[in-house]
Structure formats: structure tokens, C-alpha cells
Design a protein that fits this description.
The protein is of the alpha+beta class and 119 residues long. It has one domain (16-117). The chain has helices at residues 57-61, 74-79, 104-113; strands at 14-20, 47-51, 67-73, 83-86, 95-99, 115-117.
Length: 119
């Protein structure tokens, strides 16, 4: 497989989201993830994630002293009328984007569905 060959993201794929766990904008005092963790940054094309089957925990988390990994199911994002697109980077073949209309309610739904990913 060439570095930039794209794969189809299946409904059952887990999409990993790296979240800074020491930042109260991303993690509530009770440990639950906030909807802010699923809002694309201004100027970005979509929400940056990794496709789990194309990576491993160590490569995806980068720094376990600062980040935690959460995952959502690609099919759930599709049910919210979001598209999941494999968008490999030179330094990260597993990179993908979730694109669409990220309303506050959609970001909240993504946060509620997110599960903590453990190595």
C-alpha cells in the first residue's frame, strides 16, 4: 500500500480522537468528555481523528501524559449526517476527517457516544 492510498471508512470503524485530559474545556470534573472535544478548530476542514485499524495506541496518543484517547463509531457519525473521510498525512497514514455541519447538538451527541480507548 502506498503512503497516500486512501481507504474507505466502514460504519464499524472506530475513529480515535486525542483529547487533552488536563484541560477543563475538554473533560468535565466528573471525567466525562465535553462537546468541545468534538468541535473542529476554526480554519480546519473537519474534525481530526485516526482510523483505529490503521494505527496503534502509541502512535495515536502521541503523549499519554497529556492526552487520552476516545473513540466513536464511524456509523454513528454518519447517522448524524457527518462524512468520515480518510485523509492520510505524510506523518500519519491513519489520519481522517469527520466533516459536516457541527452544530452544538451534534457535538454533544458525539461526546455522549464517545468511549475511552485503552491500550
Amino acid at each position: 500500500m502506498k503512503l497516500f492510498d486512501r481507504v474507505i471508512i466502514a460504519d464499524e470503524d472506530h475513529l480515535l480522537r486525542r483529547v487533552p485530559f488536563r484541560n477543563p474545556n475538554f473533560i468535565k470534573p466528573d471525567g466525562r468528555i465535553t462537546s468541545f472535544a468534538f468541535k473542529p478548530k476554526k480554519g480546519e476542514d473537519g474534525l481530526s481523528v485516526d482510523v483505529e485499524r490503521l494505527t496503534d495506541y502509541k502512535a495515536s496518543i502521541l503523549n499519554p501524559e497529556y492526552f487520552q484517547l476516545y473513540f466513536i463509531i464511524a456509523g454513528f457519525a454518519s447517522e448524524l449526517e457527518l462524512d468520515c473521510i480518510h485523509s492520510p498525512l505524510e506523518e500519519n497514514y491513519a489520519h481522517a476527517l469527520i466533516v459536516g455541519n457541527f452544530t452544538n447538538s451534534i457535538c454533544s451527541e458525539l461526546a455522549r457516544s464517545a468511549q475511552r480507548f485503552h491500550s
